[in-house]
Amino acid sequence: MMRIVFDDLFPKKEKEGYVVFSGRGYHFYGNGLMDQNQWHDWIQRAREQGDVEKKWCDIQMKRGYSILRLTNSSQKIFEPKVLYRVNRY
Known about the structure:
The protein is built from three helices and three strands. By secondary structure, the protein is an alpha+beta fold.
């Protein structure tokens, strides 16, 4: 299932990155950058996926950028863990 969502959300040019578990969900940190238009299109596609939390997408759209934490905090004590490296060639 993750492969289906990944392939739907990330263009083939996004070949490298990391899958991270945050304690509540799985996230992909790509090695590439998106411009604002690419990001907007991506977050809209993510919102349409059944496996991506719509509330998260809506919050990011309202902010105008996406953010995922890399460390633990007093609010979220689980430190995100890198599960594996993605390398699609």
